[in-house]
Amino acid sequence: MKFFIDTANLGEIAEAQALGVLDGVTTNPSLMAKEGITGSENILAHYQKICDLVDGDVSAEVISTDFEGMVKEGEALAALHPQIVVKLPMIADGVKACKYFSDKGIRTNVTLVFSAGQALLAAKAGATYVSPFLGRLDDISTDGLNLIDEIRMIYDNYGFQTQILAASIRHTMHVINCAKLGSDVMTGPLSSITGLLKHPLTDSGLAKFLEDYNKGNQ
Ligand code: E4P
How far is the CA of 105 from the centre of ligand 1 (A)? Predict the structure, then answer.
């Protein structure tokens, strides 16, 4: 399972990268705005900084909602750095743009996916990644994990190569359950990754080991 961090914060990206388990980064316009990154030149420069920090894929989202605009933006993003994956919204023009990029060998991440049918369309259009937003489904009392399960079954039935990128992850149990269901990738906040470290028995066990060692090794 690949671990992506869902942020545009360079400090958090560096911290996750330093842990040695980071496989990539996802961003979106809200996350860029949260870091105060505005204006196309600054946005492109920020993507470049993210690519310099991590070894893996960096999803960069288009703002256009029409096919021509998405193609223009996506081509500029893809040309910026080989690690860039063009992130496209799950709308008709996004599906067309996904097929266009897939035919050209440019990698894509189809985002804002909330149903199995949308995931099927993304796979048929040749998406590299599909991003089902499980946290946002949970927010409206709908089982987000069930969507991951459905997509896994459909992709396996037909051998689709599109990778399931479980998005809108909120906590460690989302990560663990997505791993059980065979999600290829998860993207979440730093806390959803570092939270996996924590167990009180690890802490008390380590304290005891050190205490016992120190008794005989003063
Ligand atoms: C995924 O690519 C999105 O950036 C993200 O996971 C959305 O998460 P949120 O629902 O916490 O905003």
Answer: 25
d(CA 111, CA 108): 9
Catalytic residues: 87
Looking at ligand 1, which residue's alpha carbon is closest to its atom 9?
168
Of all protein residues, the one whose alpha carbon is nearest to atom 10 of ligand 1 is 168
Distance, first Cα to last Cα, the chain: 43
Cα gap 187→190, rounded to integer Å: 9
Per the confidence metrics, is the pTM higher than 0.70?
yes
Q: How far is the CA of 6 from the centre of ligand 1 (A)?
A: 7
User: Do 127 and 164 form a contact (C-beta atoms < 8 A)?
Assistant: no
User: pLDDT digits over 9-68, tens only?
Assistant: 999 999 999 999 999 999 999 999 999 999 999 999 999 999 999 999 999 999 999 999
CB atoms inside a 10 Å sphere around CB 205 = 11
